[in-house]
Predict the 3D structure of the following.
Amino acid sequence: MDLGIAGKWALVCGASKGLGLGCAQALSREGAHVLLVARGADALKAAADALLADPAKPAAAVVQFVAADITTVEGRAAVFARRSDFDIVVTNAGGPPPGDFRDWDRDAWIKAIDANMLTPIELIKATVDGMAARGFGRIVNITSGAVKAPIDILGLSNGARSGLTGFVAGVARQNRLAGRNVTLNNLLPGKFDTDRIAVTNAAAAKRTGKTVEEIRQAQEAQIPAQRLGTPAEFGAACAFLCSAQAGYITGQNILTDGGSYPGTF
């Protein structure tokens, strides 16, 4: 299927590895021009080089990158100094640390809300009116399956991402956006085979005395699909939500979790 986004410009945040890179690769393979953003300059350049060398990428698809912290005013200014208009925006920032809510002070909450709620809102605000004027726009926010099934030790993430979810639900239904072919959706990952889960598994192995492989096998056994997801298939889901064919999907929370969420709704 031709997704109809060749030649569109996409901003992909947190794109140096993991789910963000999976999204950037899928969009690039569809012929979209991608601007990658992440904090680590070396990893970001390596990611951009890999996309440029990808034989599945059309030759005309441009790959650019900006090493910046998208959660800061200065980082966003650096991105929009490179390019001001985007047809596709994929928001993504690392989740806040786990812990006991009794230990979190105001600064911890503000940092989580700033990264996982206010930053996506700022990116939406900066881009949707231009999308509406051009008659095409796709916003995809990478949030978390914990929005649907909160995890007790992830209170910072639960709170900040749920706030973003409520905001998107209202804005996505504005006639001046939905009526102008601008969609806003949230993509909710479950457990994926990324560096982040490797780090948490290593910590769990150290804490419990089990091997990393035992920790991973126990996680996979709890997932109906019996495996972790891959960044490539997450990217494919993102690319479809960004496609011309997805213009009638907006304000939705799409789970990609291998069937882990047990609810009907």
Summary: The beta strands are 9-13, 33-38, 63-67, 88-91, 137-142, 182-189, 253-256. The first helix runs from residue 18 to 29. The mean pLDDT is 96.
